[in-house]
Amino acid sequence: MKGTILGIVSICLILTTGLAIPATYTTSTKSPSRDFPLDPLDKEILKAIDFLKLKQKENGEIGDPMTTAWATMALCSANAEMGNISIYLERSISKLDPEKVTDWERHALAVVACDKDPTNFGGINFVEKIKTFYDGEQIGSKGLLNDDIWGIIALVSCGVDKNDPVVQGARNYIIMHQNADGGWGVGVAGNSDVDSTSSAIMALIACGVDRNSSIIQKALDFLRKNQLSDGGFSSWGSSNSASTSWAIMAISCAGENPENWIKNGKNPVDYLLSLQNDDGSFRWNETLNLNPEWMTSYAIPALLGKYYPVKVYHSYQVEAWTGYIRIEGKEKTVWEGSVTVKDTTVIAINVSSNEKEEHYIPYPSALGALVEASEKGGFNCAILYYPSWDALYVKSIDGDSDWWHYWVDYELPMVSCDKYKLTEDNREVLWGYVETWEAHALKISLDKKEVKRNEVFTVIVKDENDNPVGNATVHINSYTFLSGPDGSVKAKIPRQGVYKVYAEKEGYVRSQKVEMKVTKRTRFLPEPIERILHLIETIISYFLQMLGYSITASDC
């Protein structure tokens, strides 16, 4: 499946590019020898990601449909932003060969890498589509092995159980055709090559074959014997970045460190890094700069210690989340209550086309909780879709536009609201309107929720990280208080009744409302005197509030 996923990838790359040698190319000045695996924030990875994004067209395409799929997997392995690749993948389904299973296998891997549902993408169930090529013994052509190898990798990536009959059938077919030298070829009758052997190692381990089994160890022995003097690997020619990337991935998948695979003092990681250009791309080899987008897409997951499949899809369709949601608007609480959310279909306006689009979220999400709340509470919310980020954005809720933030259990997530998957460990979602980028949310607690008239009680005001918040206004119905530097307020209420207590401060989302009860105090004086004192307290309280004076414990 490598490249066209049809077979002899290394040679195909040369043939499809006509052995074109670029007029100029730049050689990396970087010295090899980095600790393996590299980190997504290492400069080599960041430069490679920047190169792919620079080559990405406005429609999401990188190179061509085939290269775009591999680039998608590379971006996923580095946890990089996808942009609008998923839209391109959906639109390019029509370009897949209906008779070539490797086209569907590769595309399925890219769909999962975009965190999309492979069983319902562009109206296609990729799992069932791939399975239609299974003849009861193997996938696709009986004369080929690469379609079985990538069939396993794709199905496992789509969330199919490794014990599925199709997966196990392909597994047995691959094992049955392992050559005496420990490797595999593109076809059942072909000689072993590094590319096919590397992909077979990844496929067999993905479907449950033990890394320490004789099958995997024999395959690793084949790779060792075919490592070249420069530390790199090749299939049918000189060392190249594609074969070396795949060998590194297979070695990592098998639980070994490719830096320990040393030939003449050189290892495959050093060889691969030596092929990186100054613009972040990777050359085919020392002299040829063929298909840099393609080669870069292979090199990124390899250097990160990743291997195929780079991501496995887990269905959330049967799960539901039940919890509490509160929406605090600019001037008031819009709605609060309990909701149950599963998957969600959202209507959003595409900011590029200004057209309405339907977006499906196949799991309980923070955005899904908001949509469910809007249906229960009868308020409106407007949602935008940014294709460059492949993210949904809440534009307005109940008339308040922009400046909406959300927290889950008072933690501020670092992903868009449609990407946050709610689990049974989550209890509360808070949506708050506050006109600042560094938004904070208030919380309050009371030491007593039932007191006598004029009995002192304490309210504590904190932020979402449980830091005390001073100079916050605490509302107890019509009474107001200011919190001290330690976030506390000591208050007493002269009138009996049920009160709502909450806090507000500029730059913060208002707190939850806590109910407290004030009851009659025990009489120590005759009833007529009690009534007179209560009347005096009421009059003083009224005039103080008319003068704009905030009541404190000593005032009451």
Describe, in plain words, how this protein is organized in 3D.
The chain is 31% helix and 18% strand. The chain is of the alpha+beta class and 556 residues long. It contains 15 helices and 19 strands. It is elongated, with a radius of gyration of 31 Å. Strand 5 (381-386) and strand 6 form a beta hairpin. Mean pLDDT is 88; it is low at 2-33 and 549-556. The strands form 5 sheets. It has a 5-stranded mixed sheet with strand order 4-3-5-6-7. Strands 12-19-17-14-15 form a 5-stranded mixed sheet, with no helix packed on it. Strands 2-1-9-8 form a 4-stranded mixed sheet, covered by helices on one side.
Tag the structure with descriptive keywords.
single chain, 556 residues, alpha+beta, five-stranded mixed β-sheet, 19 strands, 18% strand, disordered N terminus
Mean pLDDT: 88
Structural shape = elongated
- What is the count of β-strands? 19
The description of the largest β-sheet is: 5 strands, mixed
Strand order in space, largest sheet: 4-3-5-6-7
The number of helical runs is: 15
Helical content stands at 25-40%
The radius of gyration is 31 Å
Strand % is 15-25%
Low-confidence stretches: 2-33, 549-556
Structural class: alpha+beta
Q: Note the gap between the termini.
A: 80 Å
